[in-house]
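Can you make up a protein sequence with its backbone structure tokens?

===
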Amino acid sequence: MQSCESSGDSADDPLSCGLRRRGQPRVVVIGAGLAGLAAAKALLEQGFTDVTVLEASSRIGGRVQSVKLGHATFELGATWIHGSHGNPVYHLAEANGLLEKTTDGERSVGRISLYSKNGVACYLTDHGRRIPKDVVEEFSDLYNEVYNLTQEFFRHDKPVNAESQNSVGVFTREEVRNRIRDDPDDPEATKRLKLAMIQQYLKVESCESSSHSIDEVSLSAFGEWTEIPGAHHIIPSGFMQVVELLAEGIPAHVIQLGKPVRCIHWDQASARPRGPEIEPRGEGDHNQDTGEGSQGGEEPPGRRRDEDEQWPVVVECEDCEMIPADHVIVTVSLGVLKRQYTSFFRPGLPTEKVAAIHRLGIGTTDKIFLEFEEPFWGPECNSLQFVWEDEAESRTLTYPPELWYRKICGFDVLYPPERYGHVLSGWICGEEALVMERCDDEAVAEICTEMLRQFTGNPNIPKPRRILRSAWGSNPCFRGSYSYTQVGSSGADVEKLAKPLPYAESSKTAHGSSTKQQPGHLLSSKCPEQSLDPNRGPIKPMQVLFSGEATHRKYYSTTHGALLSGQREAARLIEMYRDLFQQGT
């Protein structure tokens, strides 16, 4: 049986010896997605040299995953840069020429994402009929009027009535339904079509929010999510190019792939014993010697770690390696936290952080790419949207497992065909997406083909020559696509999720301004250690920090939110050690 032992530093590692002599803080980043890479890059650029990134999977990128098939690149995860004005992801891509081949059609300003703004969306019913364009436009205008109302509850602090159940979906469905029924000009047949379209639009909203159902998204908090102005952009060469740009400035030895973490043992030095007994590591570094030169010479002013000093944090890996650290930045998804928070932290998380994890939502949004020999859709068609006529009176977006395919809201046409070939991208979310993930490729391709035949009224549509699909919900590294504010949650829960541990009764903000804060806020100081309780000894602040898209109050669910959250947590540590690094210069 394998035993868990602490990682010992190599005594003949000159780089590591230099780091320890200088009292360099050791930072471990868990996760090599956009948040983790952004945090590591920011720390390294500001003089932190003892940084390790632990990634559970065999690749970097997290929920960015570009797959190259033939000459085309397909995005299983993040696809669009949402907004351009002040968006760090956009500026990074633009500055490095990643948008040079982005076509005008791929610079969409529409709210509902398509691969091209050119052409028209074809709304089809399960009876093989295309809904007239004027009916679609009338419904779309009505729906967007109501959607704009959903933003006002947060932005104007409007009270939410009991009938809405504080649900975006319930409010939208009933408001649109009432307006359709009250319209004196529409014949009954048209009203029935429009009522059925409500469910299709709400399926799209569910996919965009990555919820099981938009009914589960909080109406009172919905307007807090902030859209960055400017167009949405697609990166033709793949969103992974942005990930690789972030990773370029990080030495290869810093990132360890295939290194899942079992548990974070924090508050080790101030409340003994906590977690496993860990011998302090010697004069060395966790990373392998890269041969990039010694940091020897005179020891600048700084803190020397005594041999008997206990590390405040120890990261226990699945391979039984124990990695001591001063600080750990946790970037795992909200889905992983929901599944593992009870075993992932020792001691356990504070009650308010656990409550925030429970209240906030994360769901699964999956893509299904179908490649065909020839297009069966017209050149003016940019998407095929599925409207089930028997859902005109439906008030639920949940289906039994055998009807999982009803959650597919439609297929977008990938554009331009010169780049992608003849490919459709289907969208599905929620529990039905998890059922889809459990099916094999042949079954999914067969069901999707039958749906396309049914809704287009063309029984001769061939099966696709190839299928590619995502599986974010069942992937143990993610357990979902991205977060949303669930009914019962608010932006305050996002702040609680992001709050570093341990909490303290007063704080000095990361930007250096002194503030008096309520109990439970973090302790931040330029001094690396603070003693809060003489009976417990010195408590190092910010032992465990949290980043990732779910921790950004305004930009949750986005790549720029993830990147900014990583930079935010790095900035806390950079400010905390500012004096140390200034003395060393």
The first strand starts at residue 5 and ends at 6. Residues 8-22, 271-304, 506-532 have pLDDT under 50 and may be disordered.
